Amino acid sequence: MALVLVLPALAQQENRRPRFNPEEFNARMEAYIAQKAELTQTESDKVFPLFREMKAKQFEVMKKAQKLKFQREDQLKSDDDYQKALTQMGDLNIEAAKIEANYYKKMAKAVSAKKAYRVKMADDAFHREMLQRANNGFKDQNRKPKKRPN
């Protein structure tokens, strides 16, 4: 009788993706970047505090952009409201790009421009690889990504 109750719960757990762990994700990302950019421990100690600070600032800016993207349309009354939302989203994307540019300049001073460039390329490659893995997971499991709320 106990097996009848426990087996379905265990089967359900096996089909679930593990929960996202931001600390684990960031540790994997930094290890990947350090390896691909060929950073020494000393260089990593200089670059990653700046890198983390940059990502935190960009995250705050992009949270604001996401909030604008997911406004309900009944909150936007006129064409001017839509234009204002578009302008604000564009401005926030520009702000995030400026943050990135400023921090990569700081990294280039902390190590070398070559290493800062490699960090940037490795960061981009890591995120592309993670997206590919996520997409392959959806294909392999015959699952579709969740739809965004309107």
Structural summary, described in words:
The chain is an all-alpha fold and 150 residues long. It has one domain. The protein has five helices and no strands. The protein has helices at residues 2-15, 22-36, 41-69, 79-110, 113-140. Helix 2 (22-36) packs across helix 5 (113-140), helix 3 (41-69) packs antiparallel against helix 4 (79-110) and helix 4 (79-110) packs across helix 5 (113-140). The longest helix has 32 residues, at 79-110. It is flat and about 55 Å long. The model has no long low-confidence stretch (mean pLDDT 85).
Please provide a brief summary of the model.
This protein has five helices and no strands.
Shape: flat
Low-confidence stretches: none
Structural class: mainly alpha
N-to-C CA distance: 44 Å
Find the count of extended strands (DSSP E, 2+ residues).
0
Instruction: Give the integer mean of the pLDDT values.
Output: 85
Return the string of H and E elements: HHHHH
- Indicate the proportion of strand residues: under 5%
Helix content: over 70%
* Main beta-sheet strand count, sense and barrel state: none
Domain count: the total is 1
Please report the number of helical segments.
5
* Cα radius of gyration in angstroms: 21 Å
